[in-house]
Q: What sequence folds into this?
């Protein structure tokens, strides 16, 4: 094909129409530790790959451990490239998706010919890394994919010229499900550090020594299958996450039939609120000092075989809204029908302008 601007653009348009282009996802290394933030990016990438697109991950780690140990080889085997040691050539028909906290990558890639889109899962991450006075518009970013209504509203308020799309995370029902087997009186703990665990467990035993026989189980750093099995077998899951935006782990516990005892985070997840009120889809508290009394009450409820069926049913209904089929539909609508197709329209517009000039 003759190497001129018109033919180049025509080639790019054909590449998009024929899925003959590359979709790059910039990612961090989870270091083998489960991470809902990383999971969302990999789940999105694999969904797009399964549609027949050429998907790649980019990273800057010399020794990249990846997600094989906790997500499996089907995710780890998606091609990964170290941008420090490999030369990546992109074309106007390619796409690069960048997490919100990589403002340096947005800046460094501003001259690239590919379409660049931000994926924002936590607004606080964005505020921590972007230089004061800088905006995404300065980096040439025009589109952003978010995971929650709150993030979408924040970005629309801060960057009104940015086009936002929402794709909620999904709860994989093939892994997280309730098998209806009798559950053990065990309290799973989903939190981020030992300080939180100590704050939960030690004062409880001090306050309620008669329940010293009750077990608490730390679910950090487990492969997803093991994590799901433990959720499914335990009657209760204590969810303590101060800075979450979506609250994946709480929903995974709900899907597994483990009653969630959770501290309401500062950024209330959208599945927790209805008409301004806390939903009855778990046992929720605001003050940590109330947690131990709630745990003691849960033990009594279990012993007396009085587990609240209405909460269990509401948990099931809440989790089912974020199923994989809905996720796939939303990914198709946002990535394929909007991001990819809009890029094709942009190129067609550029082509028309060039052809008019040459007439």
A:
């Amino acid at each position: 094909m003759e190497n001129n601007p018109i033919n180049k653009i025509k080639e790019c348009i054909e590449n998009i129409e024929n899925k003959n282009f590359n979709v790059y996802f910039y990612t961090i290394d989870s270091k083998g530790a489960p991470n809902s933030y990383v999971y969302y990016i990999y789940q999105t990438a694999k969904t797009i790959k399964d549609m027949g697109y050429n998907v790649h991950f980019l990273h800057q780690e010399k020794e990249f451990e990846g997600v094989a140990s906790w997500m499996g080889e089907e995710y780890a085997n998606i091609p990964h490239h170290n941008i420090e040691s490999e030369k990546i050539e992109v074309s106007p028909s390619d796409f690069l998706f960048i997490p919100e906290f990589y403002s340096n990558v947005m800046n460094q890639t501003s001259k690239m010919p590919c379409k660049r889109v931000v994926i924002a899962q936590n607004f606080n991450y964005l505020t921590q890394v972007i230089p004061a006075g800088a905006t995404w518009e300065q980096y040439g970013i025009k589109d952003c994919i978010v995971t929650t209504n709150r993030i979408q509203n924040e970005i629309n308020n801060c960057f009104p010229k940015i086009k936002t799309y929402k794709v909620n995370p999904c709860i994989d029902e093939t892994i997280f499900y309730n098998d209806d087997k009798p559950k053990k009186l065990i309290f799973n703990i989903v939190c981020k550090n030992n300080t939180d665990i100590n704050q939960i467990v030690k004062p409880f035993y001090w306050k309620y020594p008669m329940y010293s026989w009750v077990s608490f189980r730390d679910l950090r750093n487990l492969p997803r299958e093991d994590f799901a099995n433990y959720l499914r077998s335990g009657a209760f899951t204590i969810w303590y996450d101060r800075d979450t935006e979506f609250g994946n782990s709480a929903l995974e516990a709900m899907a597994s039939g483990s009653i969630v005892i959770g501290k309401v985070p500062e950024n209330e997840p959208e599945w927790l609120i209805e008409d301004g009120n806390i939903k009855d889809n778990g046992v929720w508290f605001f003050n940590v000092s109330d947690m131990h009394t709630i745990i003691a009450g849960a033990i009594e409820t279990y012993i007396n075989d009085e587990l609240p069926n209405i909460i269990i049913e509401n948990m099931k209904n809440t989790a089912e809204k974020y199923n994989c089929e809905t996720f796939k539909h939303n990914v198709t609508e946002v990535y394929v029908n909007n991001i990819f197709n809009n890029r094709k329209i942009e190129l067609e517009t550029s082509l028309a302008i060039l052809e008019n000039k040459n007439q």
Summary: The mean pLDDT is 94. The chain is about 40% helix and 15% strand. Residues 198 and 204 are 9 Å apart (CA to CA). Residues 324-358 form the longest helix (35 residues).
